[in-house]
Amino acid sequence: MRKSYIALFLAICLLISCLAGCSTNNANNDSATQISVTAKEKDNSTFKLSYTQSDSLDPFKAKTQNNQVLASLVFESLFDLDESYEPVTNIATGYAFTDKTTLRVDINPQIKFSNGSDLDIEDVVFSIKAAKKSPAYGSALSCIKSVQAQGNSVIINLSYSNPNAVNLLTFPITSIKDDKNGFPVGSGRYRYENSNGTVVLKANTENGFDPYLATITLVNIAAADSIDNAVNIGNISYAFRDMSSDTSKRLSCAKKPVSMNNLVFIGVNSTGGAASNAQIRRAISLAVDRTVLAESAYAGYASVATSPFHPDFKSFGKINLFSSSADSATAKQAVNQSGYSDRELSLSVLVDTNENKIACANLLKSQLESAGFKITIERESVREYRRRIQNLEFDLYIGEIKLSDDMNLYPFLASNGGAKYGIELDEMTCDDIYEKYLSGDEELGKFILAFNDEMPYIPILYKKGMICYSKALKGDMQGYYGNFFSNIDSWNFNS
């Protein structure tokens, strides 16, 4: 019996020993696993971006696209816009219209700049005022009349009613004071640093940002063609191209289209001649095959404009005023209703040296001639093209304008608008109806009907930009306009 107790005791001891050993091994394995999970590789030299050394890194003084693109890494904004042009809170925690022309924006008081200083309400007021005077943001912010601090909020007074004004608050928020090296200070994912006489971007890990790309080298490349070549051969890793020329054919790197708010349109001289007739303007719109222009003239880097507003804009995206394909039969009916005969429908199309616009004009000529028009194309230098437009020396012209992110149409529908040329606002009603829509005194649908009846200009497409990057760069590239590096924390060069 005693031997049985001894045997049982030894068996229990052995079992406890085994369990303890297993527990130790599991703990060691868990520890090893934890180390492998938390330990992250860092890259401090491979990822490179272009910048313009002769231009300012201050986002409110920078004039080049190069340096303006960098700003989205160094600075945060009050709001970001998602790919549907919907505002997403960032430094701001919310907003409210206290009346039609007063916007209150509430600020997160817990945010710090990359140098450890607090982001105060005074920094926000300073940034709004600086942005209003800047070459990059000033034009879009012309509707802001004044701004003042109120506790943890800023009160923005608008010069006119603008229900989408919050979409404009995507400019950088900077510290009033530069850092000790003279660099502007933001609260973004990276900060500017001087590394042995070279400007680099260092990850701002104080806010929990912990990317593989810990240091980004900046390479001085100013010329557009040189940037294209540099990303092709790997001298830089990533670039945004606004497709101001047809760069897509020259780029052999990885590419992704990026939505932009750049409207390509047909400007119409409604002050005289056949184009002064609203039915003729409608006939021109009906005869245009917008899909062909987007896919051929712009190589697919464009979205068809089915209304005056961007199709991606959530508030307006379901408006289908224009067909994406040509309707020559209905266009001919509109011509018949105009009272003009075929012999009177000779129109010229003015275009500058931009290769996309030239391709667009050539296709447009064919499309309009299918509807009974006689079209000649007049190519001019950029300077002469602009002079002729300003002096109303055109029948039609192919134009492009970057609309602000609130999708405001005042560039066309205001007497001082930048694209007003040829539009006889005194003879139209759509401008007055649009103003009433902005103030909440008229429905959007009434403006759309008036626009279709009067056709002050003819929207064709919204041009897309492009992000291009080294094929060695890994990760799901989610950058979009205004937030080119949205998920840079997941990019790497691991094979």
What is the count of DSSP helices, taking H or I runs of 4+ residues?
12
Distance between the termini: 67 Å
Low-pLDDT stretches: 1-39
**Main beta sheet:** 7 strands, mixed
Q: Classify the helix fraction into a percent range.
A: 25-40%
How much is the radius of gyration in Å?
29 Å
Question: How would you sum up the global shape?
Answer: globular
Bin the strand percentage: 15-25%
Which whole number gives the mean pLDDT?
89
Structural class: alpha+beta
For the secondary structure, the number of strands is 19
Compact summary:
The chain has 495 residues and is α+β, with helices and mostly antiparallel strands. It has twelve helices and 19 strands.
Blueprint of the fold:
Blueprint: H1 2-38, E1 48-51, H2 65-74, E2 76-77, E3 79-81, E4 87-89, E5 92-99, E6 102-107, H3 121-132, E7 144-150, E8 153-158, E9 172-173, E10 190-195, E11 198-203, E12 215-220, H4 224-233, E13 238-241, E14 254-268, H5 278-287, H6 290-297, E15 302-304, H7 328-338, E16 346-351, H8 355-369, E17 374-379, H9 382-390, E18 396-402, H10 410-413, H11 430-438, H12 444-454, E19 458-469
Parallel strand pairs: 1-12, 16-17, 16-18
Antiparallel strand pairs: 2-9, 3-4, 5-6, 6-8, 7-8, 10-11, 11-12, 13-19, 14-18, 14-19, 15-19
Helix pairs in contact: 5-7, 6-8, 11-12
Description of the molecule:
- The protein has 495 residues and is an alpha+beta fold.
- It is built from 12 helices and 19 strands.
- Strand 7 and strand 8 (153-158) form a beta hairpin.
- Helix 11 packs antiparallel against helix 12 (444-454).
- It is globular, with a radius of gyration of 29 Å.
- The N and C termini lie far apart (67 Å).
